[in-house]
Amino acid sequence: MLILPYQTRFALRSAPLVTLALILINALVFFFAQARDEQVYDAAYRYYDQSALPRIELAHYRDWLARQPKDPDAREQLAELQAALRRQDIEGALTLMQDDDDFMRALHELAVVTPEEPDFLTWRDQRNRFEALLASSTTERFLLKRERLQPWRFITYQFLHGDLWHWLGNMVVLLLAGSFAEAALGRGRFLAGYLLAGAGAGALQVALSDASVIGASGAIAGAMAMVAVLYGLRKVPVFVSVLFYFDTLQMPALALLPIWIANELWQWANAAQESIAYAAHLGGFAIGAAYAWLLRPRQAAQPAPEPETEAGPERARLRMQRRAEQAAAQVDIPRATRLYAELAAQYPKRTDYAVASYNVALLGNDPESLRNAAEHLLVNRPGRASEDMRRAYLNMAQSKTRALLPVDSQLRLARRLVRAREDAAALQLIDSLLVDERVRAERARELSDCLLGLFTTYTRHGLKQQADDVRRRLAQYFTPPGTLPSPPPSGQTTVQGPSTLNFDLP
Question: Do residues 341 and 373 lie in contact, with contact meaning Cβ atoms separated by under 8 Å?
Answer without folding.
Answer: yes
